From TrEMBL:
Residues within the DNA-binding region(s): 36-55
One Pfam match: TetR_C_1
The organism's place on the tree of life at top rank: Bacteria
Keyword terms, alphabetized: DNA-binding, Repressor, Transcription, Transcription regulation
Organism: Streptomyces phaeoluteigriseus
Name listed for the protein in its UniProt record: TetR/AcrR family transcriptional regulator C-terminal domain-containing protein
All residue ranges annotated as the HTH tetR-type domain in the record: 13-73
Length: 227
């Protein structure tokens, strides 16, 4: 770092936003497991105690980092087509989470939703309500969507392993799983080596859910009169 740059860094006032953005950038660069208050202070050119004026502890730092990331999600688009509005917002959330691969784990680790996450979920519920879904249906929709609302979901299998034919012994014992594995291995456009195209799978499930919710809306579905 040049003397001029160091002087500029020292003169830039430290505030909560700067601390959080530096923490997000550090986690992006080195991973969330290496993040510490001491490491962050070094990155900012301050003593560790200076950080505690803006975040009480590491848990509050992680809360703020989650909110900073969620704040990057696009606002809802205008228009009467609620499925298009919701789909676009969720795919924006997914792009944000892919930019910050550590963020999903941090969001899941929070003991409760942070303010930005709450605001986002409230806005998403509003999009469902404005689309004509009842409060009752929206309640169940939010449960059904789960973390998918924030652009990520827990997969059953880790498909990031090396590609190749299934083990003959396992294939004999689990023929249907072997068949599915062979099908996935043929997907040349996968975002992981030899596995499923995770973006396609995410959008496939998202579209199924949204179409199903619309069908229930048209039927006037309620939890006391299940279709």
């Amino acid at each position: 770092m040049t003397r001029q740059k160091a002087t500029h860094t020292q003169r830039t006032p430290l505030n909560r936003d700067r601390v959080l953005r530096a923490a997000v950038a550090l986690a992006d660069a080195t991973g969330i497991d290496t993040l510490s208050m001491r490491r962050l202070a070094q990155e900012l050119g301050v003593v560790p105690m200076a950080l505690y004026k803006h975040v009480a502890n590491k848990e509050e730092l992680l809360d703020g980092m989650a909110d900073t990331v969620v704040g990057e999600i696009d606002p809802p688009a205008a228009g009467p087509d609620w499925q298009r509005v919701v789909r676009g917002r969720i795919l924006s959330a997914r792009r944000v989470l892919l930019r910050h691969p550590w963020a999903a784990r941090v969001i899941e680790s929070r003991t409760g939703p942070t303010p930005a996450v709450l605001a986002y979920l409230d806005s998403m519920a509003g999009s469902f309500r404005e689309g004509g879904l009842s409060a009752d249906l929206t309640h169940h929709v939010m449960h059904a969507m789960g973390s998918r609302l924030l652009g990520f979901s827990q997969e059953l299998f880790d498909t990031s392993g090396p590609a190749g034919p299934p083990d003959p012994g396992l294939a004999a014992r689990y023929p249907h799983i072997a068949e599915l594995a062979a099908t996935a291995a043929h997907d040349g456009g996968s975002t992981v080596n030899g596995g499923c195209d995770d973006q396609f799978e995410f959008e496939f499930a998202l579209d199924l859910l949204l179409d199903g919710f619309e069908r229930l809306r048209r039927q006037g579905w309620t939890s006391t009169r299940k279709a």
